[in-house]
């Protein structure tokens, strides 16, 4: 569209007709020249022309309104109820104290003489502490992933980790790794030496307890001090305690009471009562390891076979 010509026709063209009598020779010459310039002989205002050639320099496109608008961050949902509620009986009502904290400890175990405490960490290390002086004696390294299971056999500390490895550590020598075993395909969840010190039981997340396949997740293990028996605690699917006869590994009992996985077990000092703690936030006491009135002599512990121990499935 020729806008200059259109403006002339809408304004200047009419002026010439209304003032013909007063135009001088110079005025008429100017009008004629102006008409030639604006192509007055055309009868149309609109005219079709070829598409103009593209510009050499590309003009950057202006950003769209969508691009210009800033992304609005979705408002975070904040739950109005706690994720989990735990009991804290007899906690001191004293705001000067700071009794709560997070930590990287994944397991603890006292030495048989009660003088040393082994502390397993999430970074795959195991620390050995002197309980009397509260001093760190040494750090044991050997695992590649976190260590969650610990048990003592004299001066031998056996550790099990997420790397599926079981390591015997002699805490009395500088090169502490004296034996390694791999009998599980997933993380080691429980380790326990027999009272004689000649058998080691291990349980893993692969639903195996060496020396038996249990069919459910093995969380912890205990040897019966008075009978040739082994007690295992489990998670999915039944959350039960299972008793086994050793060495036949025949199932002799199953106890169902917890509603979530049985995470921890510990024997009473006399060896007859077992305390269990589960993810259902319950502690339960069980009399499953014999009768105190029928006590039998405990065989003397022998430490020499530790280095030749072989795992049995």
TrEMBL record:
Cross-referenced PROSITE patterns: WD_REPEATS_1 (PS00678), WD_REPEATS_2 (PS50082), WD_REPEATS_REGION (PS50294)
GO CC field: anaphase-promoting complex
Gene3D superfamilies assigned: YVTN repeat-like/Quinoprotein amine dehydrogenase (2.130.10.10)
Keyword set includes Repeat: yes
GO biological process: anaphase-promoting complex-dependent catabolic process; positive regulation of anaphase-promoting complex-dependent catabolic process
Domain (Anaphase-promoting complex subunit 4-like WD40): residue spans on this chain: 104-153
Protein name: Anaphase-promoting complex subunit 4-like WD40 domain-containing protein
Organism: Anisodus tanguticus
């Amino acid at each position: 569209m020729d806008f200059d010509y259109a403006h002339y026709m809408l304004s200047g063209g009419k002026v010439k007709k209304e003032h013909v009598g007063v135009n001088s020779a110079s005025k008429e010459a100017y009008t004629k020249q102006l008409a030639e310039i604006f192509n007055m002989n055309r009868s149309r205002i609109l005219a079709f022309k070829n598409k103009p050639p593209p510009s050499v320099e590309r003009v950057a496109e202006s950003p769209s309104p969508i691009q210009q608008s800033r992304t609005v961050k979705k408002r975070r949902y904040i739950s109005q109820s706690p994720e989990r509620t735990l009991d804290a009986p007899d906690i001191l009502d004293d705001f000067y104290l700071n009794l709560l904290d997070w930590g990287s400890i994944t397991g603890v175990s006292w030495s048989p003489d009660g003088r040393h405490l082994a502390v397993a960490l999430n970074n795959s290390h195991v620390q050995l502490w002197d309980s009397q002086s509260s001093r760190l004696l040494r750090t044991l390294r050997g695992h590649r992933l976190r260590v969650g299971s610990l048990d003592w056999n004299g001066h031998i500390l056996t550790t099990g980790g997420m790397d599926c490895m079981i390591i015997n550590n002699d805490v009395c020598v500088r090169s502490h790794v004296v034996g390694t075993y791999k009998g599980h395909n997933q993380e080691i969840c429980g380790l326990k030496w027999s009272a004689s010190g000649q058998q080691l039981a291990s349980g893993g997340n692969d639903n195996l307890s060496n020396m038996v396949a249990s069919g459910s997740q093995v969380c912890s293990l205990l040897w019966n001090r008075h009978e040739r028996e082994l007690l295992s605690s489990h998670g999915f699917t039944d959350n039960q305690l299972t008793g086994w006869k050793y060495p036949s590994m025949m199932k002799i009992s199953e106890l169902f009471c917890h509603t979530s996985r049985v995470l921890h077990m510990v024997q009473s000092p006399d060896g007859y009562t077992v305390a269990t703690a589960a993810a259902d936030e319950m502690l339960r006491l069980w009399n499953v390891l014999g009768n105190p009135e029928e006590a039998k002599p405990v065989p003397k512990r022998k430490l020499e076979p530790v280095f030749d121990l072989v795992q049995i499935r």
